[in-house]
């Protein structure tokens, strides 16, 4: 594939993305703004928030820290899975 084809494919996708963005901007109604988008209008339930927090913690830890930590210290690192589960359950009960 030569440079002309690659550049034209890239240009087509960029134009399509801009057109879709402008169509979405034009078609939006009166929303709640940034607060509605960022915190869900404060209408998410506590169980859903707990699941989101636990999922965020597990994915951040597993992608960023668990591999290196497990490589350095071995299998005893697996206690963290149980530790985090207990921590999130306790945080759900006693947290705000």
TrEMBL record:
Task: Tell me the superkingdom of the source.
Answer: Bacteria
A single GO CC term, please? membrane
Is Calcium set as a keyword in this record? no
Q: Which GO terms describe its molecular function?
A: transmembrane transporter activity
Any stretches that span the bilayer, and where are they?
Answer: 6-26, 47-71, 77-95
- Name the InterPro entries for this protein: Na/solute_symporter (IPR001734)
Keyword entries, A-Z: Membrane, Transmembrane, Transmembrane helix
Protein's recorded name: Sodium:solute symporter family protein
